[in-house]
């Protein structure tokens, strides 16, 4: 293991922030976000709506100049839209990315996990008539959320996220009390991932409740009179120059020793077959990405289909041979298998090909596009 120390000097410059606008219904979150496109600090603005009406009418906001990103509303489609927006080359000024809303994204991910739990049909139904979502599915959901956030953190420009803000009962001893507190609706990590949080508990009222900045010091939530995103950006110092956004990433170590086990100088990687293919998520944009997935899989055992009497052919080969459309976005290995199974079910395959018995595949079902 290489233990050589690597360091760098801090730049002293702020990076473009990820702002979270959290508000009640009709509080003006989308209006405030789109209004930022008029700032002289940014160039192009890309608006990604999730479960919200497209803000076509907001183009009449003085100075507003934005483009609405079109996607199919599925999780892979939304992820692909975010990744494509981040990948767009910037001009002389940075590109602003707006995602409206992150609450809807988390609800979509949760609904997809609920659909899987209901199909598994194990355990006891909850009060809503659904089956309990197991911890492995919640882990998948958290991974899908993190994949979107990681894409946004890779953006070297400003990002504005919106979320719903609701008053909820304060819990004591597992029981609700008469006291209320304001809660941002979304994955629990959302407030931590944002550079600054603006709460809009009433329309026209802006409360800054959190900020990571050496220039803006906040000892408690404070009202922000005449708030605009452009004014906050200026207060954060981005008009005087910015540095690239960097963060210390963490990677799950699949090959590390169990706690308490003897330390090994060079741990032996776990076999590929130990990966849970129902959870393994990888980006899929083109055939090169499919090849990368292919390298992560046991070709015959995990992705194979029986062709003819005893010949095995990989999913990647079938995608090329049967002209399957290349998936866009991030997929689990199981979802990729589902695409091949759908092709088989439609009868669009060579006459001598027979699929492996699907009940022998150790993967969880993944909702197809359009299912909830």
Walk me through this protein's architecture:
The chain is an alpha/beta fold and 372 residues long. The protein has 2 domains: 223 residues, P-loop containing nucleotide triphosphate hydrolases (Rossmann fold), CATH 3.40.50.300; 84 residues, no CATH class. The protein is built from 10 helices and 13 strands. The strands form 3 sheets. Strands 1, 2, 3, 4, 5, 6, 7, 8 and 9 form a 9-stranded mixed beta sheet that branches. Strand 7 and strand 8 form a beta hairpin. Helix 2 packs parallel to helix 4 and helix 3 packs antiparallel against helix 4. The longest helix has 19 residues. The C terminus is likely disordered.
Helix count, DSSP H or I runs of 4 or more residues: 10
**What is the arithmetic mean of pLDDT?**
75
Query: Radius of gyration over alpha carbons?
Result: 24 Å
Please tell me what the overall shape is: globular
Search tags:
disordered C terminus; 2 domains; 372 residues; two-stranded antiparallel sheet; alpha/beta; Rossmann fold
Write the layout of secondary structure elements.
Blueprint: E1 18-23, H1 29-35, E2 45-49, E3 67-68, H2 75-87, E4 96-100, H3 102-120, H4 135-153, E5 159-172, E6 175-185, H5 190-193, E7 196-200, E8 207-211, E9 222-223, H6 229-235, E10 281-284, H7 287-296, H8 299-303, E11 305-307, E12 311-313, H9 315-321, E13 329-332, H10 333-345
Parallel strand pairs: 1-5, 1-7, 2-3, 2-4, 4-5
Antiparallel strand pairs: 5-6, 7-8, 8-9, 10-13, 11-12
Helix pairs in contact: 2-4, 3-4
């Amino acid at each position: 293991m290489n233990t050589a120390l690597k360091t760098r000097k801090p730049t002293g410059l702020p990076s473009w922030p990820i702002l979270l606008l959290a508000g009640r219904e009709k509080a003006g979150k989308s209006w405030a976000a789109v209004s930022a496109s008029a700032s002289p600090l940014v160039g192009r603005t890309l608006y990604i709506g999730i479960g919200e009406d497209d803000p076509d009418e907001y183009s009449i906001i003085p100075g507003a100049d934005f483009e609405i990103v079109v996607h199919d509303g599925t999780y892979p489609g939304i992820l692909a839209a975010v990744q494509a927006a981040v990948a767009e080359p910037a001009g002389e000024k940075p590109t602003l990315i707006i995602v409206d809303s992150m609450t809807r994204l988390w609800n979509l991910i949760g609904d997809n996990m609920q659909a899987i739990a209901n199909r598994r049909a194990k355990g006891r139904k909850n009060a809503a008539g659904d089956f309990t979502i197991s911890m492995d599915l919640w882990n998948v959901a958290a991974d899908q959320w993190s994949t979107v956030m990681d894409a946004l953190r890779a953006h070297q420009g400003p990002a504005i996220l919106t979320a719903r803000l609701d008053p909820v009962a304060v819990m004591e001893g597992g029981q609700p009390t008469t006291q209320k507190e304001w809660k941002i609706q979304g994955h629990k990590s959302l407030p931590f991932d944002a550079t600054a949080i603006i709460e809009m508990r009433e329309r026209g009222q802006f409360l800054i409740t959190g900020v990571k900045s050496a220039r803006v010091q906040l000892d408690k939530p404070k009202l922000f009179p005449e708030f605009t995103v452009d004014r906050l950006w200026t207060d954060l110092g981005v008009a005087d120059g910015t540095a690239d956004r960097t963060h210390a990433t963490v990677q799950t170590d699949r090959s590390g020793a169990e706690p308490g086990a003897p330390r090994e100088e060079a741990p032996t990687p776990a076999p590929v077959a130990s990966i849970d293919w129902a959870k393994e998520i990888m980006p899929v944009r083109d055939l090169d990405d499919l090849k990368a997935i292919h390298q992560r899989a046991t070709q015959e055992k995990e992705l194979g289909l029986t062709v003819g009497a005893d010949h095995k052919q990989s999913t990647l080969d079938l995608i090329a041979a049967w002209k399957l459309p290349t998936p866009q976005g991030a997929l689990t290995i199981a979802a990729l298998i589902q695409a091949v199974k759908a092709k088989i079910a439609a009868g669009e395959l060579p006459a001598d090909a027979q699929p492996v018995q699907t009940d022998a595949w150790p993967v969880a079902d993944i909702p197809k596009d359009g299912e909830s």
